Input
Amino acid sequence: MTIVYNNYNIKKHSTFKIGGNVKKVAFPETIEELINLLSTEEYDYVLGNCSNILFSSEYIDKSIILTEKLNKYFINGCRINVSCGTKGPIISSECRKRVLSGFEFLIGFPGSFGGMICMNASAHNQSISDSFIRANLYDIKNKKIITLNKEEMNFRYRESVVTNNNYIILNAEFELKKGNEDDINEIMKRNIEFRKTRQPSLTYPNAGSIFKNPANDSAGRLLDLCEMKGEKEGGAMVFDKHANFIINKDNATSTDVLKLMYRMQSKVKEKYTIKLVPEIKYIGNKGTEENKIWETITENIQKIQK
Ligand SMILES: Cc1cc2nc3c(=O)[nH]c(=O)nc-3n(C[C@H](O)[C@H](O)[C@H](O)COP(=O)(O)OP(=O)(O)OC[C@H]3O[C@@H](n4cnc5c(N)ncnc54)[C@H](O)[C@@H]3O)c2cc1C
Output
Protein backbone atom coordinates (compact mmCIF):
# COMPACT_ATOMS: atom_id res chain seq x y z
CA MET A 1 0.00 0.00 0.00
CA THR A 2 1.23 3.50 -0.83
CA ILE A 3 2.47 5.36 2.21
CA VAL A 4 2.14 9.13 2.10
CA TYR A 5 3.90 11.45 4.53
CA ASN A 6 3.19 15.13 5.02
CA ASN A 7 5.93 17.53 6.08
CA TYR A 8 8.48 14.79 5.49
CA ASN A 9 12.23 15.32 5.91
CA ILE A 10 13.91 14.35 2.66
CA LYS A 11 17.56 14.63 3.74
CA LYS A 12 18.21 10.92 4.34
CA HIS A 13 17.00 10.04 0.84
CA SER A 14 19.46 12.39 -0.87
CA THR A 15 23.01 11.18 -1.60
CA PHE A 16 24.07 14.78 -0.77
CA LYS A 17 22.49 14.37 2.69
CA ILE A 18 20.98 17.82 2.28
CA GLY A 19 17.30 18.72 2.35
CA GLY A 20 14.50 20.16 4.43
CA ASN A 21 10.93 19.09 5.00
CA VAL A 22 8.79 18.44 1.92
CA LYS A 23 5.05 19.17 1.84
CA LYS A 24 4.13 15.66 0.69
CA VAL A 25 6.13 12.54 -0.16
CA ALA A 26 4.54 9.31 -1.44
CA PHE A 27 6.09 5.86 -1.59
CA PRO A 28 4.10 3.60 -3.95
CA GLU A 29 4.75 -0.12 -3.54
CA THR A 30 3.59 -1.30 -6.95
CA ILE A 31 3.59 0.10 -10.48
CA GLU A 32 -0.24 0.09 -10.35
CA GLU A 33 -0.10 2.29 -7.25
CA LEU A 34 2.31 4.65 -9.00
CA ILE A 35 -0.05 4.93 -11.99
CA ASN A 36 -2.95 5.49 -9.64
CA LEU A 37 -1.11 8.36 -7.89
CA LEU A 38 -0.12 9.94 -11.20
CA SER A 39 -3.61 9.73 -12.64
CA THR A 40 -5.54 10.97 -9.63
CA GLU A 41 -3.30 13.59 -7.99
CA GLU A 42 -0.81 16.26 -9.01
CA TYR A 43 2.78 15.59 -8.13
CA ASP A 44 5.65 17.98 -8.86
CA TYR A 45 8.41 15.37 -9.14
CA VAL A 46 8.96 11.62 -9.47
CA LEU A 47 12.41 10.73 -8.16
CA GLY A 48 14.46 7.57 -7.82
CA ASN A 49 17.52 7.44 -5.62
CA CYS A 50 17.96 11.25 -5.49
CA SER A 51 21.62 10.89 -6.49
CA ASN A 52 21.43 13.78 -8.94
CA ILE A 53 19.38 16.18 -6.83
CA LEU A 54 20.15 19.14 -4.60
CA PHE A 55 17.17 19.64 -2.30
CA SER A 56 16.73 22.97 -0.58
CA SER A 57 17.55 22.87 3.13
CA GLU A 58 14.49 25.05 3.68
CA TYR A 59 10.86 23.87 3.66
CA ILE A 60 9.98 22.59 0.18
CA ASP A 61 6.42 23.33 -0.82
CA LYS A 62 6.19 20.46 -3.33
CA SER A 63 4.71 16.99 -3.73
CA ILE A 64 7.17 14.22 -4.55
CA ILE A 65 6.87 10.53 -5.41
CA LEU A 66 9.87 8.37 -4.48
CA THR A 67 10.09 5.09 -6.43
CA GLU A 68 12.51 3.25 -4.14
CA LYS A 69 10.00 0.49 -3.34
CA LEU A 70 9.40 -0.27 -7.03
CA ASN A 71 12.34 -2.62 -7.29
CA LYS A 72 11.09 -5.74 -9.09
CA TYR A 73 13.02 -7.28 -11.96
CA PHE A 74 12.83 -10.37 -14.18
CA ILE A 75 15.67 -11.91 -16.10
CA ASN A 76 15.03 -14.29 -18.97
CA GLY A 77 18.18 -15.28 -20.86
CA CYS A 78 19.74 -12.03 -22.07
CA ARG A 79 16.54 -10.01 -21.54
CA ILE A 80 16.02 -8.01 -18.36
CA ASN A 81 12.86 -6.23 -17.33
CA VAL A 82 13.27 -3.76 -14.45
CA SER A 83 10.87 -1.56 -12.51
CA CYS A 84 11.88 2.10 -12.32
CA GLY A 85 13.04 2.11 -8.68
CA THR A 86 15.50 -0.80 -9.04
CA LYS A 87 19.05 0.23 -8.25
CA GLY A 88 21.85 -0.19 -10.79
CA PRO A 89 24.30 -2.27 -8.68
CA ILE A 90 21.64 -4.94 -7.95
CA ILE A 91 21.14 -5.59 -11.67
CA SER A 92 24.85 -5.28 -12.36
CA SER A 93 25.55 -8.07 -9.81
CA GLU A 94 22.77 -10.25 -11.27
CA CYS A 95 24.33 -9.81 -14.71
CA ARG A 96 27.73 -10.79 -13.37
CA LYS A 97 26.24 -14.01 -11.94
CA ARG A 98 24.67 -14.83 -15.33
CA VAL A 99 27.76 -13.76 -17.29
CA LEU A 100 25.87 -11.02 -19.12
CA SER A 101 27.78 -8.02 -20.40
CA GLY A 102 26.57 -4.40 -20.80
CA PHE A 103 25.91 -3.27 -17.22
CA GLU A 104 29.46 -3.52 -15.83
CA PHE A 105 29.40 0.29 -15.45
CA LEU A 106 26.52 0.05 -12.97
CA ILE A 107 28.64 -1.60 -10.30
CA GLY A 108 28.97 1.01 -7.54
CA PHE A 109 26.56 3.33 -9.39
CA PRO A 110 24.06 5.09 -7.13
CA GLY A 111 21.12 5.60 -9.52
CA SER A 112 17.76 3.87 -9.99
CA PHE A 113 16.67 2.75 -13.45
CA GLY A 114 14.07 5.54 -13.73
CA GLY A 115 16.71 8.19 -13.05
CA MET A 116 19.35 6.48 -15.16
CA ILE A 117 17.06 6.17 -18.19
CA CYS A 118 15.85 9.76 -17.83
CA MET A 119 19.47 11.00 -17.66
CA ASN A 120 20.91 8.39 -20.06
CA ALA A 121 23.50 7.58 -17.40
CA SER A 122 26.90 6.53 -18.64
CA ALA A 123 30.39 5.75 -17.44
CA HIS A 124 33.48 3.87 -18.59
CA ASN A 125 32.38 3.74 -22.27
CA GLN A 126 29.00 2.16 -21.50
CA SER A 127 25.64 3.88 -21.28
CA ILE A 128 22.10 2.93 -20.34
CA SER A 129 20.96 3.44 -23.94
CA ASP A 130 23.39 0.80 -25.32
CA SER A 131 21.29 -2.18 -24.28
CA PHE A 132 17.91 -0.42 -24.00
CA ILE A 133 15.04 -2.04 -25.92
CA ARG A 134 11.83 -0.34 -24.75
CA ALA A 135 10.14 1.27 -21.75
CA ASN A 136 6.59 1.67 -20.53
CA LEU A 137 5.94 5.24 -19.48
CA TYR A 138 3.01 7.09 -18.01
CA ASP A 139 2.09 10.13 -20.09
CA ILE A 140 0.80 12.56 -17.47
CA LYS A 141 -0.66 15.06 -19.95
CA ASN A 142 -2.73 12.50 -21.84
CA LYS A 143 -3.25 10.24 -18.81
CA LYS A 144 -2.23 7.04 -20.56
CA ILE A 145 0.53 4.44 -20.67
CA ILE A 146 2.77 4.54 -23.71
CA THR A 147 5.59 2.29 -24.88
CA LEU A 148 8.67 3.86 -26.45
CA ASN A 149 11.53 2.10 -28.21
CA LYS A 150 15.16 3.20 -28.20
CA GLU A 151 14.80 5.56 -31.16
CA GLU A 152 11.70 7.19 -29.68
CA MET A 153 13.52 7.73 -26.37
CA ASN A 154 15.85 10.18 -28.17
CA PHE A 155 18.78 9.46 -25.86
CA ARG A 156 21.42 12.21 -25.74
CA TYR A 157 24.21 13.19 -23.35
CA ARG A 158 22.47 13.18 -19.93
CA GLU A 159 19.08 13.65 -21.59
CA SER A 160 16.24 11.70 -23.16
CA VAL A 161 12.69 12.33 -24.29
CA VAL A 162 11.73 12.08 -20.60
CA THR A 163 13.72 15.20 -19.68
CA ASN A 164 11.34 17.68 -21.32
CA ASN A 165 8.07 15.77 -21.30
CA ASN A 166 5.60 14.83 -18.67
CA TYR A 167 6.58 11.17 -18.99
CA ILE A 168 7.20 8.88 -16.04
CA ILE A 169 9.18 5.69 -16.60
CA LEU A 170 7.34 2.69 -15.16
CA ASN A 171 9.55 -0.19 -16.26
CA ALA A 172 11.97 -0.98 -19.03
CA GLU A 173 13.42 -3.85 -20.98
CA PHE A 174 17.07 -4.34 -21.88
CA GLU A 175 18.95 -6.89 -23.90
CA LEU A 176 22.47 -7.70 -22.75
CA LYS A 177 25.17 -9.74 -24.46
CA LYS A 178 26.52 -13.12 -23.39
CA GLY A 179 29.96 -12.22 -22.04
CA ASN A 180 33.10 -13.77 -20.69
CA GLU A 181 33.32 -14.22 -16.92
CA ASP A 182 36.93 -13.09 -16.55
CA ASP A 183 36.38 -10.03 -18.73
CA ILE A 184 33.27 -8.97 -16.80
CA ASN A 185 35.04 -9.40 -13.46
CA GLU A 186 38.06 -7.48 -14.73
CA ILE A 187 35.97 -4.56 -16.08
CA MET A 188 33.98 -4.33 -12.84
CA LYS A 189 37.15 -4.40 -10.77
CA ARG A 190 38.60 -1.58 -12.89
CA ASN A 191 35.40 0.46 -12.60
CA ILE A 192 35.30 0.11 -8.82
CA GLU A 193 38.98 1.00 -8.58
CA PHE A 194 38.44 4.08 -10.77
CA ARG A 195 35.58 5.32 -8.59
CA LYS A 196 37.55 4.67 -5.40
CA THR A 197 40.62 6.59 -6.50
CA ARG A 198 39.10 9.42 -8.55
CA GLN A 199 35.65 10.12 -7.12
CA PRO A 200 34.24 10.66 -3.64
CA SER A 201 32.50 7.65 -2.13
CA LEU A 202 29.18 8.29 -0.45
CA THR A 203 30.96 8.55 2.91
CA TYR A 204 31.54 12.08 1.56
CA PRO A 205 27.92 12.81 0.62
CA ASN A 206 27.69 14.19 -2.92
CA ALA A 207 25.46 14.16 -6.00
CA GLY A 208 27.95 13.09 -8.67
CA SER A 209 29.20 15.48 -11.34
CA ILE A 210 28.00 19.00 -10.66
CA PHE A 211 28.32 20.28 -14.24
CA LYS A 212 27.97 18.55 -17.61
CA ASN A 213 31.04 18.31 -19.77
CA PRO A 214 31.14 21.03 -22.42
CA ALA A 215 31.66 19.88 -26.02
CA ASN A 216 35.01 18.15 -26.46
CA ASP A 217 36.21 19.04 -23.01
CA SER A 218 35.80 18.05 -19.39
CA ALA A 219 34.21 20.22 -16.72
CA GLY A 220 36.55 18.64 -14.15
CA ARG A 221 39.63 19.61 -16.20
CA LEU A 222 38.48 23.24 -16.60
CA LEU A 223 37.58 23.57 -12.93
CA ASP A 224 40.92 22.04 -11.97
CA LEU A 225 42.76 24.61 -14.15
CA CYS A 226 40.78 27.29 -12.30
CA GLU A 227 42.23 25.88 -9.05
CA MET A 228 38.84 25.06 -7.58
CA LYS A 229 39.88 21.82 -5.83
CA GLY A 230 39.51 22.20 -2.06
CA GLU A 231 37.57 25.50 -2.35
CA LYS A 232 34.89 25.84 0.34
CA GLU A 233 31.64 27.60 0.99
CA GLY A 234 30.24 26.95 4.48
CA GLY A 235 30.14 23.15 4.88
CA ALA A 236 30.44 22.45 1.14
CA MET A 237 33.80 21.75 -0.49
CA VAL A 238 35.05 21.03 -4.00
CA PHE A 239 36.44 17.49 -3.77
CA ASP A 240 40.23 17.54 -3.68
CA LYS A 241 40.66 14.65 -6.14
CA HIS A 242 38.09 15.76 -8.73
CA ALA A 243 37.09 19.39 -9.24
CA ASN A 244 33.64 18.60 -10.69
CA PHE A 245 32.37 17.08 -7.43
CA ILE A 246 31.12 19.00 -4.40
CA ILE A 247 31.10 17.09 -1.15
CA ASN A 248 29.01 17.81 1.90
CA LYS A 249 31.97 18.06 4.25
CA ASP A 250 30.41 19.57 7.31
CA ASN A 251 26.62 19.89 7.47
CA ALA A 252 26.48 21.88 4.26
CA THR A 253 23.25 23.64 3.36
CA SER A 254 21.82 23.94 -0.13
CA THR A 255 22.79 27.61 -0.09
CA ASP A 256 26.43 26.64 0.56
CA VAL A 257 26.35 24.30 -2.45
CA LEU A 258 24.67 26.85 -4.72
CA LYS A 259 27.13 29.60 -3.76
CA LEU A 260 30.04 27.26 -4.44
CA MET A 261 28.51 26.22 -7.79
CA TYR A 262 28.16 29.88 -8.72
CA ARG A 263 31.83 30.51 -7.91
CA MET A 264 32.93 27.42 -9.89
CA GLN A 265 30.88 28.43 -12.89
CA SER A 266 32.01 32.09 -12.74
CA LYS A 267 35.70 31.12 -12.61
CA VAL A 268 35.43 28.94 -15.73
CA LYS A 269 33.40 31.60 -17.54
CA GLU A 270 35.93 34.29 -16.67
CA LYS A 271 38.93 32.24 -17.80
CA TYR A 272 37.53 30.25 -20.74
CA THR A 273 34.29 32.09 -21.68
CA ILE A 274 32.38 28.83 -21.23
CA LYS A 275 29.29 28.82 -19.03
CA LEU A 276 29.16 25.34 -17.52
CA VAL A 277 25.72 23.71 -17.54
CA PRO A 278 24.60 22.10 -14.26
CA GLU A 279 24.11 18.34 -14.37
CA ILE A 280 22.46 18.22 -10.96
CA LYS A 281 18.90 19.41 -10.47
CA TYR A 282 17.81 21.80 -7.73
CA ILE A 283 14.47 21.36 -5.97
CA GLY A 284 13.27 24.23 -3.85
CA ASN A 285 10.79 27.06 -3.74
CA LYS A 286 10.50 29.84 -6.28
CA GLY A 287 11.42 33.34 -5.15
CA THR A 288 13.84 32.41 -2.39
CA GLU A 289 17.41 33.71 -2.30
CA GLU A 290 18.77 30.33 -3.33
CA ASN A 291 16.27 29.97 -6.14
CA LYS A 292 17.62 33.27 -7.48
CA ILE A 293 21.20 31.90 -7.39
CA TRP A 294 19.97 28.79 -9.25
CA GLU A 295 18.27 30.95 -11.88
CA THR A 296 21.52 32.87 -12.39
CA ILE A 297 23.45 29.62 -12.72
CA THR A 298 21.00 28.22 -15.28
CA GLU A 299 20.21 31.34 -17.32
CA ASN A 300 21.37 31.49 -20.95
CA ILE A 301 23.21 28.24 -20.67
CA GLN A 302 25.07 27.34 -23.83
CA LYS A 303 23.79 24.32 -25.67
CA ILE A 304 27.26 23.03 -26.35
CA GLN A 305 27.08 19.70 -24.63
CA LYS A 306 28.69 16.52 -25.87
C1 LIG B 1 28.94 9.18 -6.32
C2 LIG B 1 28.14 9.42 -7.57
C3 LIG B 1 28.66 9.03 -8.81
C4 LIG B 1 27.93 9.24 -9.98
N1 LIG B 1 28.47 8.83 -11.16
C5 LIG B 1 27.76 8.99 -12.30
C6 LIG B 1 28.30 8.51 -13.55
O1 LIG B 1 29.39 7.96 -13.62
N2 LIG B 1 27.55 8.69 -14.67
C7 LIG B 1 26.32 9.28 -14.64
O2 LIG B 1 25.67 9.37 -15.69
N3 LIG B 1 25.79 9.76 -13.47
C8 LIG B 1 26.48 9.61 -12.31
N4 LIG B 1 25.96 10.06 -11.12
C9 LIG B 1 24.68 10.83 -11.11
C10 LIG B 1 23.42 9.99 -10.87
O3 LIG B 1 23.69 8.80 -10.18
C11 LIG B 1 22.75 9.67 -12.20
O4 LIG B 1 22.32 10.86 -12.83
C12 LIG B 1 21.53 8.77 -12.06
O5 LIG B 1 21.08 8.46 -13.34
C13 LIG B 1 20.39 9.39 -11.25
O6 LIG B 1 19.53 8.34 -10.86
P1 LIG B 1 18.54 8.54 -9.62
O7 LIG B 1 17.68 7.38 -9.52
O8 LIG B 1 19.32 8.90 -8.41
O9 LIG B 1 17.70 9.79 -10.14
P2 LIG B 1 17.19 11.04 -9.29
O10 LIG B 1 18.38 11.80 -8.83
O11 LIG B 1 16.21 10.62 -8.30
O12 LIG B 1 16.48 11.87 -10.46
C14 LIG B 1 17.22 12.34 -11.55
C15 LIG B 1 16.25 12.73 -12.65
O13 LIG B 1 15.59 11.56 -13.12
C16 LIG B 1 14.17 11.75 -13.05
N5 LIG B 1 13.54 10.48 -12.72
C17 LIG B 1 13.82 9.63 -11.69
N6 LIG B 1 13.00 8.55 -11.74
C18 LIG B 1 12.17 8.76 -12.79
C19 LIG B 1 11.10 8.01 -13.37
N7 LIG B 1 10.69 6.83 -12.87
N8 LIG B 1 10.47 8.51 -14.47
C20 LIG B 1 10.86 9.69 -15.01
N9 LIG B 1 11.87 10.44 -14.51
C21 LIG B 1 12.52 9.98 -13.42
C22 LIG B 1 13.95 12.78 -11.95
O14 LIG B 1 12.73 13.44 -12.11
C23 LIG B 1 15.15 13.68 -12.17
O15 LIG B 1 14.87 14.60 -13.21
C24 LIG B 1 26.66 9.86 -9.93
C25 LIG B 1 26.14 10.25 -8.68
C26 LIG B 1 26.87 10.03 -7.52
C27 LIG B 1 26.27 10.45 -6.21
